[in-house]
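Appendix B, record 7
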Amino acid sequence: MAGFFSRLALIFRSKADKALDRVEDPRQTLDYSYQRQLELLQKVRRGVADVATSRKRVELQAQQMQSEMQKLTLSAQRALEAGREDLAREALTRKSGLQAQLGDLQTQHATLQGEEEKLVRASTRLQAKVDAFRTRKETIKATYSAAEAQTRINEAFTGISEEMGDVGLAIQRAEDKTLQMQARASAVDELLASGALEDATGTYKDDITRELDSLASDAAVENELAAMKSQLAVGSGPAPTPALSSSSSTEASPQPGVAEASQESAQPQAAPQSPEDQ
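Structure tokens (predicted):
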């Protein structure tokens, strides 16, 4: 059971690492690290300022003690001059106590001064590291941005990016639908032409019907054209000459059968009816 939970925890950690790798941006990580270094440098500088303040306070106390010791020395001299040895002894005793305190202050001052110097050197080194890190950070960020832009450009050219992939899929779907509609339209035309499907509107004609209609239309055009030619020929004939004799007039008069035949040929023939008109 323990092995099962350990494997499960390992799987979760690996999944979490992969998710973090996808989400993590190195530029943001570098900026965060730089911000943390700046905060640390600021703390060091505040420490240097605090130590320097303490050192200065000790210096002021030492100066005050030295001034007080000088006053006690003058007071002892005046007491001796006045014949008050007891007062002179008391003043010198106080001076001795201040002297011991002054020694302690001087020791503290030396310690604080050493700490201040250490913090100043550490602050200087840290400042140099922060400056170097900032330069390297900006270089890495610029390189990463350029690589990211180049990768996106290459993915766009190759069509493997998500955006271009979606566009490619949309185009492919549109082409497939277009081909499908063209195939369907062609199949319906073939079925209508073969007579397998009937046109409910009656506007569609198969190949045979269209061919018969075309022949009928051509025949009607030819017949009408022939009739028009006949009419033109009759209307534009030579004028008849005056009869010289009865025999000539008899010869010139057309026979009844011939006249009737010419009149029938002059009349336009009716165009043959199409299968639809029948």
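Remarks on this record: The longest helix spans residues 85-158. Confidence is low (pLDDT under 50) at residues 242-278.
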